[in-house]
Amino acid sequence: MELNFKIKDKSDESLKLREANLSTFKKKGFPNKKEEDWKFTDLEKVLSENFKELHNKQIDNKKPSIQDLKISHNSITLVNGKLESFDFKSENLKDENYFKVNEFHLDQHLNFANELKDNQMQNLNTALHEGGFYLNIKSDYKFKYPIVIYNYFTGVLKNKIINNSETITMSKNSDATIIEYLIDESEGNFFKNTFKYINLEENASLNYYFINKNESNNFFYEFSKVELLKNSNFKKYLFSSGMKFGKFESNIKLNGMNSCGEVYSGLFLGINNHQEIKTNIQHLKPNCQSHQDIKNVLAAGSKGVFQGKVFVDSIAQKTNAYQLSKGLLLDEESEFSTKPELEIYADDVKCSHGSTSGNIDKEALFYLKARGIKEKEAIKMIIKGFLESVLEKIKDKDITDILLNHFNKHIKYEYRSN
Amino acid sequence: MSDKIIDTNKEYKYGFTTDIESFKAPKGLSEETIKFISKEKKEPKWLLDWRLKAYKRLKSLKEPNWQKPKYPKIDYQDLYYYSAPKSTKDKPKSLAEVDPKLIETYKKLGIPLDEQKRLSGVAVDAVFDSVSVATTFKGELTKKGIIFCSISEAIQKHPDLVKKYLGSVIPLTDHYFATLNSAVFTDGSFVYIPPNVRCPMELSTYFRINASQTGQFERTLIIADKGSYVSYLEGCTAPMRDENQLHAANVELVALDDAEIKYSTVQNWYPGDEQGKGGIYNFVTKRGACRGKNSKISWTQVETGSAITWKYPSCILQGDNSVGEFYSIAITNNYQKADTGTKMVHLGKNTKSKIISKGISAGKADNTYRGLVDINKKAINSRNYTQCDSLLMGNKCGAHTVPYIKNKNSSSTIEHEATTSKINEEQLFYCNQRGLNQEEAVSLIVNGFCKEVLQQLPMEFAVEAQKLVSISLEGSVG
Predict the structure, then answer these.
(1) How many domains does chain A have?
(2) Least reliable range by pLDDT among A64-68, A75-79, B119-123
(3) B414/A351 touch (CB, cutoff 8 Å), yes or no
(4) What residues of chain B lie within 8 A of the CB of A354, using their CB?
(5) Alpha-carbon distance A45 to A49, whole Å?
(6) In a 10 Å sphere around its CB, with 0-12 CB exposed, 13-18 middle and 19+ buried, how is residue B448 labelled?
(7) I want to staple B145 with a disulfide (CB 3.0 to 4.6 A). Which of B66, B194, B229, B450 is the partner?
(8) Are A337 and B396 within 8 A, CB to CB?
(9) Do B422 and A36 touch (CB under 8 A)?
(10) What is the arithmetic mean of pLDDT over A195-203?
(11) What is the pLDDT of residues B338-351, one digit of tens each?
(12) pTM of the complete model
């Protein structure tokens, strides 16, 4: 694989920084399975099998065809990773100071990136940084409607690498729901490397959903660093069915008492899909909670990976951490690999994890068939029930509808009986 | 429960050294050392070549560093690789000829070697440092065709069997410590159970590390031929010493069609003192291959000693319908560290594996369960069940669980669960109320927590193991 990375920057200082990061990256190369964090997902191999070349040339953004979600919402529009526009009219704000949206620059990015400087994907991101957005929600503001981030990919993006970053700061007592909606209309394969920094101050609350509209043949890597202060609450829902390659890392630091971090995912992986969800939840203060529920349905040679870690510091007493990962394998070609890890240094805690994988329960299938339901239909019901269980805790009906719709579209119920 | 830690830790029961002149190889790891060992043991040429091949390979390997417990760098050139008590140079013909000091040592350890042997019904092949000095119960076993001897003896008397199976489960090229062992192993046990024979007694070996600065490199090979059964016990104690001692043993098990091997370990080596000074490094490679159909290998271990325990007794389930089991209790106290678990590799059809792991961490110790369950594409209808529970005492210790789970087969099912918690206060209260003091109560509850594993041990071990569990935790609760 040929790497055609050209670096330029207006300021000399930034240019130096980019160059330094690029040379660090080149020394390390793309991560491969020898690295513990990439044990089940050999990025080097995946990329070299699918790309002859990777470049970071600027491409003129083609206007995407606007595709609205049919609910009242605010929006931030990104095209090929760069901020295009934003619209907060539905909110009917009297004072525009409740929030701030900005183009994201390299110097801002560095404030966050420093901590991750040993991560070569972060090095690469810094070196070839192209933009993104910065969203700051001010104290005490509670959004009435969800903010939809339209993440469009358009034009000829063959062999392109997109490096961007996003920051969301939730100030004290603020509350928001964000739906990241990925729409891929591009031609040619590209690789996207994104770093997200999410900060929640005291009593803030954020629900973050990720869904994709259509199938995508592209390659996505995303690293989210989330930090929570006292009494704050962060929920992440990942629904990226239909994506050829994805690795979503969430590093969640529970850095305030009574904070709570949750990760949910329901994925249906089809033909040769490879997706990994990796979490690292760090309980650093007492009385924090975390909850993880990961469900994967695997068919047609797909590979699902879950690497989940719960870390409990010695001062984080009264921690309650739970983690569940389940794989439903529909055929012989598919694989489910998990590494549910616990690292615990406090004794007054309740930490548990469970992981299962296997085929459709024959008894459940028999039960349904005995009631006159055809086999194909019965399998459909079982798969649906399996995946939809992650939606149980969502209270917002509009969002549940969007997600159910998403499942109906991306879940293929074809099944080869053994 | 208060956080107070009562400092009444019972001293290491088996901390003593015997003054026996040792016969040592030159210090350091080199081709000369290996040739010396081989010559000293009158080994055939193929074995020397095998050792040298391992040594050559070793030079290209790096010491692994992914494990949780870190340790100071080991200077392999500063170790003695061969040491035999001098008095065994002219091998004794009966027990009466054995150095009385040795016999005394075994008596202190409670090994049923002399008159105790008939009472206990255990055949003992005791290993003192690196050379077997006395073997008992040979007669009865020979009648059944069972071979139970030191591996050096097996190399002389049964070269075909050794040549066929040595290194067939743990290849020369495996990993650093296993390869090191292949190059410099000195002695160990060899067991062969002929077809359709059920071994009438529990076979047992006691290991002792004695001579100062001697890394002990045991090599054990157990072969259960078609339709046979054997239960093997391994118990370890070591004298008190300040310097860290390396122990890198290799244990290979081979089970052919319908055979069953049960391997039990009670490990109580010197764990270092309360400040974490000294103690044994226990870096052992244990692996069993279920080669034949319907074969079964079951590992049971009670790990209470050693400064660092780093081992993963594994099963390779090659034969159809074969079964692998792993039952483990790992107790760490003070500054002890354990990184232990198992690997279950499913290759044959309808293979089953079960993992029960109980980790108990107290003081400033770190206890890690690390395991792999890998069900391959061809292993249809396979099944795995894993349960690992950890118990923490105090907030200065750590308990970790790192399972790797791979399912490449839709007709197979894997279940894994893990929990971490502290001792239930209601249970403690209940015991206290009935007149048990805190320590007795904790001991009772912990024994209950470990019951699933303890009941897998053979009778001879179960009692000792239960006591060990209590002794290991004394002084850790307040």
Answers:
(1) 1
(2) B119-123
(3) no
(4) 415-418
(5) 6
(6) exposed
(7) B194
(8) no
(9) no
(10) 94
(11) 999 999 999 999 99
(12) 0.84
Strand, coil or helix: what is A50?
helix
Residue at A398 is within a domain = no
Q: Is residue A418 part of a domain?
A: no
> Which chain A residues have a beta carbon less than 8 Å from that of B404?
39, 337-339
For residue A75, the enclosing domain spans: 2-360
Q: Which of B294, B207, B288, B290 is nearest to B249 (CA)?
A: B207
C-alpha B399/C-alpha B166 separation (Å) is 36
Q: Do B412 and A358 touch (CB under 8 A)?
A: yes
Cβ count near A102 (within 10 Å):
14
Is residue B458 scored above 50 in pLDDT?
A: yes
| Nearest neighbour of A354 by CB, restricted to B402, B407, B417 | B417
Question: Are the C-beta atoms of residues A83 and A100 closer than 8 Å to each other?
Answer: no
> Considering only CB atoms, which chain B residues are within 8 Å of A39?
404
Residue A321 lies in a domain: yes
A329 touches chain B (CB under 8 A): yes
The shortest CB-CB distance from B409 to any of A332, A343, A353 is to A332
Would you say A173 and A202 are in contact if contact means Cβ atoms under 8 Å apart? yes
Query: Residue A378 in 3-state DSSP?
Result: helix
- Cβ within 8 Å, pair B405-A314: no
Closest CA to A393 of A198, A270, A260, A249: A260
Question: Which residue in chain B has the smallest CA separation from A346?
Answer: B395
pLDDT digits (tens, 9 = 90+) for A292-308: 999 999 988 899 999 99
Above pLDDT 70, what percent of chain B? 77
- Nearest by CB to residue A347, choosing from B393, B413, B414, is B393
Backbone angles phi, psi at B163, to 5 degrees: -60, -35
Give the integer Cα–Cα distance in Å for B381 and B66: 33
Q: Does residue A369 belong to any structural domain of this protein?
A: no
Question: Which tokens sit at A221?
Answer: 């890597």
Q: Which residue has the tokens 């203060």?
A: A285
Which residues of B lie inside 8 Å of A (Cβ-Cβ)? 66, 377, 390, 392-422
Q: Which amino acid is at B11?
A: E
